[in-house]
Specification:
The chain is of the alpha+beta class and 755 residues long. The chain contains 27 helices and 21 strands. A six-stranded antiparallel β-sheet has the order 7-10-5-1-17-16.
Length: 755
């Protein structure tokens, strides 16, 4: 066979094959195209996801996208050398998405699984009722929204990172599907401005990811022409398919998957057993520059028995406005986000002016500075108000002694309705306007002295005579209620509850304390009213918001002063659960007066880290015993040391148990910060009523509102809570941190007078 004949026999197909090899992308370029198109599709989806929030954390979302690109691009390179290293790197990148999304970094580093699960769970619970774009400040909701983007991005990236060398159409579709959800779901919740154009962009990006790395160089023009034609056809067909009604109503599904508890409150005072919700369930979050009491209503009328909201605005003559400098100093914008309650009251602080976010019409409330929405506000509602709430010092208020109170404007706030026939019969009600402090004048003293409130009037007059300034009178009334009166949420029933509270039973909760103080102030001539709402709640430093629970529901007193306006006073004892979030007696500070080792916050250590025993050595002088073999010995030593401490310290039970509780939290990896109070810690264990009861018994015993020690069942429940999320040896750490207390001679040593 000749050479020329040999040349003729080379098939044209090989030439085409060689031509195709020249025009095809190389493996390296295919990988680059894959990552580029994945990144472009992910960036578009991230941009669409940002529309779910009014003020999205842009850099957090971009950071999550960067982690996804690192997972898709770096892990395959590492896999070529070590599958184990690639797996470790992949898990590390996925865990890094948690703090990137907004979860506290030290929770991830120290594996605080329980805290992380609780924060994410709270956000998921509120999510079905959230309105989008979300304008609120609830950290849990915002965290869950960002985590949703992280899960979708990392899901698609993981498919690319751990795919085999042959990357077929099925795996491409699996990687593209999460990104498609990332882009499409926000458009179903927040209608885009140019939906068809954005749909075309999504189609082009999706097509580029699916087929971009397999295009011939000379076929790019054809691909672009096909994409343009498909876009035109889609633009013509889409309007006919857009019926503005969902084919599948997924929102109804989400509402049934997660049950959201919703509370409601009646702020009028009844003085019977406290019937407000008391489970520790979060009802709202507040974002503000400074913490305050969050007001719902003013109770300005006393009907002879109870304080209630007026049926209409009660001030016929406007009160003088505070000075400009005072207004500027104590005015702030606050954002209220309702998470677990329903109300028509516009929550604010002090004197409130609504700014934005309340759907529908609003009207003035029963008193100036309060507002009512035409429609009920529930979970997902978020709005902004401007509030003026002054907090002048005692020196500043005493300096107002020479200023005159405007009589006509303050008359409604010095008025009480008094039953005129005494304690025996129903009698008639007489409306009495008490004179301004120390101005005298006839006002119906005979009616008051013949009424059930004769002793209360005599007490108010006596305290007023002892005061040099109006503020001194207010302070004396508040001080009087702090001596000899106890906090109790189940006071005895009485025909005239405030008279009975002041002079007979002397026990009650915030309604009794605030109602009695406001009544005495009006009898002494100081304009006063009862305010109802919530105390500040638990402070979240990372987002500068306050998480408010149903246990923060509260009532307090506001007294009017020239120059400043309404100033808040709270006569309720600090042992009240509602005052736990703002009381100046956090757990760590409250234990600072103890002596010995109990005064110092225990450092965070692992099991056996504080043992001082000599390390055992083998007979041959070789290596020491394994830590796992030494663990039982360390536990025995710890138990013996605890038993000795209990036997030698039989007194000061409450303080000892508080110190033990603080150490137990630290030893299980949950050290308490300086601002944590017992009431806040009690709410932390709300998922376990028995564990919360352990903390509650210590709180009540510390403040003199109870004397029952924690039960063994409560102690075991608390130990289980401490062990939660600590892995296989969590129960050992919890047992070491909170061992069973030992009975000696039928008594539980260390419990002082309790048995």
């Amino acid at each position: 066979m000749s050479a020329g004949a040999h040349t003729v026999q080379v098939p044209a197909r090989s030439d085409r094959a060689r031509g195709r090899d020249v025009t095809e992308f190389s493996p390296r370029r295919r990988t680059a195209v894959r990552l580029t198109t994945f990144g472009a599709l992910g960036l578009y989806g991230t941009d669409r996801w940002m529309t779910l929030m009014g003020d999205p954390p842009v850099w957090r979302l971009i950071g999550v996208l960067g982690l996804a690109l690192a997972l898709a691009g770096i892990v395959p390179l590492v896999r070529r050398r070590s599958r184990v290293a690639a797996g470790v790197l992949g898990v590390g990148l996925m865990l890094a998405a948690l703090p990137m999304a907004g979860l506290r970094w030290h929770w991830v580093v120290h594996l605080k699984i329980a805290d992380s699960v609780n924060r994410i769970g709270n956000g998921l619970q509120a999510l079905p009722n959230v309105l989008v774009p979300y304008l609120g400040s609830d950290h849990g909701v915002r965290l869950v929204i960002v985590l949703g983007a992280a899960v979708l991005l990392l899901d698609g990236a993981a498919v690319i990172a751990f795919a085999p060398r042959r990357f077929g159409d099925g795996r491409r579709a699996a990687a593209a599907l999460p990104l498609l959800v990332l882009a499409v779901v926000p458009s179903t919740l927040v209608r885009p401005q140019l939906p068809y154009l954005q749909g075309f962009v999504l189609f082009v990006l999706l097509a580029a990811f699916m087929w971009g790395e397999r295009l011939h160089r000379d076929g790019a023009a054809t691909a672009l022409a096909v994409a343009a034609l498909a876009g035109v056809v889609g633009g013509l067909v889409a309007p006919r398919l857009d019926t503005h009604k969902p084919w599948i109503d997924y929102r109804s599904w989400t509402g049934t998957l997660v049950k959201t508890r919703v509370d409601s409150f009646n702020w009028n005072q009844t003085y019977g057993p406290l019937r407000w919700p008391r489970s520790g369930h979060q009802v709202l979050t507040v974002a503000a520059r400074a913490g305050d009491y969050w007001k719902a209503e003013d109770l300005t009328e006393f009907d002879g028995r109870e304080w209630v909201a007026a049926s209409q605005v009660t001030t016929p003559v406007s009160l003088p406005a505070p000075s400009d400098s005072v207004l500027q100093h104590w005015t702030q914008d606050i954002r209220i986000s309702i998470t677990g309650m329903r109300t028509r009251d516009v929550i604010g602080a002090g004197y409130t002016s609504p700014l934005s976010g309340i759907a529908g019409r609003i009207s003035a409330g029963s008193d100036a500075g309060t507002w009512v929405a035409a429609h009920e506000l529930g979970p997902g509602s978020s709005y902004v108000v401007q509030s003026y709430s002054p907090h002048p010092t005692a020196t500043q208020l005493r300096a107002l002694a020479r200023r005159h109170y405007p009589k006509a404007a303050t008359d409604p706030y010095r008025t009480l309705e008094i039953p005129s026939s005494g304690l025996g019969g129903p009698g008639t009600i007489t409306q009495i306007v008490f004179p301004v402090w120390r101005t005298g004048g006839a006002f119906g003293q005979q009616v008051v002295r013949a009424s059930p409130y004769a002793r209360a009037y005599a007490l108010a007059q006596r305290l007023a005579r002892q005061a040099r300034t109006p503020y001194d009178f207010v302070a004396r009334v508040k001080r009087f209620l702090s001596r000899g009166y106890a906090y109790n949420e189940h006071p005895p029933a009485a025909r005239y509850p405030l008279e009975s509270f002041l002079f007979t039973h002397k026990v009650g909760y915030c309604q009794q304390f605030s109602g009695a103080m406001a009544m005495l102030l009006r009898m002494g001539g100081i304009p006063a009213r009862v305010a109802a709402g919530f105390t500040s709640g638990g402070f979240r430093n990372e987002s500068h918001t306050w998480a408010v629970a149903d246990t923060d529901a509260h009532a307090w007193v506001e007294a009017w002063f020239p120059r400043y306006g309404w100033v808040r006073f709270d006569p309720t004892p600090t042992s009240a659960p509602a005052r736990g979030g703002i009381a100046s007696d956090p757990i760590l500070k409250s234990l600072s007066g103890l002596s010995g080792s109990q005064t110092t916050a225990a450092p965070r250590r692992e099991i056996g880290a504080d043992a001082t025993a000599t390390t055992p050595v083998s007979a041959g002088g070789g290596s020491s015993l394994s830590p796992w073999l030494a663990l039982p010995a360390l536990l025995v030593l710890g138990a013996l040391g605890r038993l000795g401490w209990i036997l030698l310290h039989p007194a000061g039970a409450t303080e000892q148990l508080l110190a033990e509780l603080r150490r137990a939290m630290a030893r299980t990896g949950r050290p308490l910060s300086d601002d944590v109070t017992l009431a806040m810690l009690e709410r932390r264990f709300a998922d376990s009523p028995a564990a919360a009861g352990y903390v509650r018994s210590l709180r009540l015993a510390r403040y003199g509102a109870g004397d029952a020690p924690p039960t063994p069942a409560q102690r075991r429940a608390l130990r289980r809570q401490l062990a939660f999320g600590l892995g296989a040896i969590g129960w050992l750490r919890a047992l070491w941190a909170l061992p069973p207390r030992v009975r000696i001679g039928g008594r539980r040593r260390g419990l002082d007078r309790h048995s």
